[in-house]
Known about the structure:
By secondary structure, this protein is an alpha/beta fold. Helices cover 45% and strands 14% of the residues.
Amino acid sequence: MKADSPNLFRRYRLPVIGMVYAILASIAWVFAFLLRFDFDPAGGQQNFWIVCLAMLPWIVVAKVILLAVAGQYRGLFSFFRISDAVRIAMVSLSGALIILAMIPLAQREGLPVPRGAIMIDSVVFASFIIGFRLLMRLRSERKRGAPSTKQAVSRVAIIGAGSAGGNLISELLKKPGLGLQPVVVLDDNGSLHGLKVHDVPVFDSPDHLAHAISRFRVQQVLLAMPSARTSRRREIVSLCRRLNIPCVSIPSMEQLATGKVTYSTLKPIAVEDLLGRDTVTMKHEDISPFLRDRTVLVTGAGGSIGSELCRQIARCRPNALVILDHSEPALFTIEQELKKDFQEVPVIAVVASILDETRLQRIFRESSPEIVYHAAAHKHVPMMEFQPDEAIRNNAFGTRCLIRTAARFGVERFVLISTDKAINPTSVMGATKRLAELYLQAFQRQHPGKTRFSAVRFGNVLGSSGSVIPIFKQQIQNGGPVTVTHPEMTRFFMTIPEAVGLVLTSSSLSTGGEIFVLDMGEPVRIRDLACQMIELSGLRPGKDIEIQYTTIRPGEKLYEEISHRGEELSHTSHPRIMRFTGPGSSLLDIESHFDSLGNALADADAHDLRERLHQIIPEYSGASPSDESGRPVQPTPPAQPSSAQHDEATGLSVFQFAPSS
């Protein structure tokens, strides 16, 4: 019965509302007579109480009908605006005029109706109805705004007390699921200071943001000035950056005018909310002693992973940090950030190609790195499908140059950042990363000397350049649609801090020749990820934002794996990091394959290069078939094996994934 009560209310909604309005009209009429005669029911010399009760049914019927004509039965109780108050006032005034018109008829029946009571009734009735509606709205807002015990609420400052700021505050109060609580408003208009916008105080100008942050315990800033000058907006954003507080902006007025983009789309996406599992935390105190007072070199330092590697390494206070990248702008950006935030750490920025072995030798000779993290790579799967020569050069030959140089100059640890796409690869990118893994393991077996070579396989890194997160976020901000390649496509996901923590922790665990993988739990459907991001933006998938399915792009898989069939799984000291080792190939065979590939790079077409990769890596299935232009035809998705199985020998789960039903 309890579960059906909302349905019962909806079924009998109009009679219930009519009854409430009738009761309020009755109370207002009686209360007006009591006020008119100073709460003396006898009414002085004449008993006007009889007049009150005799007129009551007619008064109630007239007002209930007038309220229905004014549309006050269809409006939701939880929404009440000034226009509704005006309509109720007009209903009350109309009722008073009708009663005044009825006075001659009442007098013929011997009922002298006091005109003062009619006017009092008009005011009291309007006050009762408006008060009732406001009470219902307040109750609804408090119910919606009640903080959840499981939800973290961020205290936010709104910059701008205009219509955009007011609408933003109103929407945030209506949608507590966004986790944003407006606590203060800042505006350049001094005449507004000390006033309130939806009960949120207008404190001061944005220039006094630091004081507002301290006084109101602000955790985030929302910029609600879509029509402000660009220079002013830039000043405020710069101020937020100096104060080290997150700042996001509402969409432009043009985007808001379309109706597809709302104020709530400004909420930043917390990538941790998208994993479907708890994040894996690598303890800083376990990594710091390993890196402190060491000289560390990071390749690909300007990329998403490389730059975060540099930040976390710098926190460990190495003796020197050598950052290497082929992109001068990306390298400059991370260099300036490191020099500003870690002034005690010597940062050496080097613009170089990892294919230039002579240049690499000079760099190693001058800087003498003890630990090398190799993050430089071409990683975009569809793009590399049509440029296999570049993927082979950078991912395979570039890694070989670095490995040779590291061994020659006695580097203690060398860590290759690989990918789960290297497992049974269907793409050129995955095949070239697998070739780099094979070379690293073969070199370690042939030269078990001072340098310990290891690799780390990533899943898809949330928030990195080229990942689906920035793409989906931009599509949501544009009002949709969000494009997903296939409804059943799944991926393993990890955050950038998880990925970098895995790299740093694995390097301290390495004995040489291993491949480390983070236990990333169950794979996540890309479709579910898109729906989560839309919901976290305060919108509804399929209604506010459409989801469109495209097609699987060249080289992509439906499902990813984390290990090759021939690899052996073993424990590490970290419960969430797994170590894989395999028989591999001899260095002599691998070198001959590299020589063959090197000779073919000059004049072989894309199809021929993919075929050569298939000869070296038999499990690579992206080599055939191809169309007349040499572009690969999408391979058939893998079969659907069972889900996680328990390995009795290791106590860990061996993951072989199938699509969920």
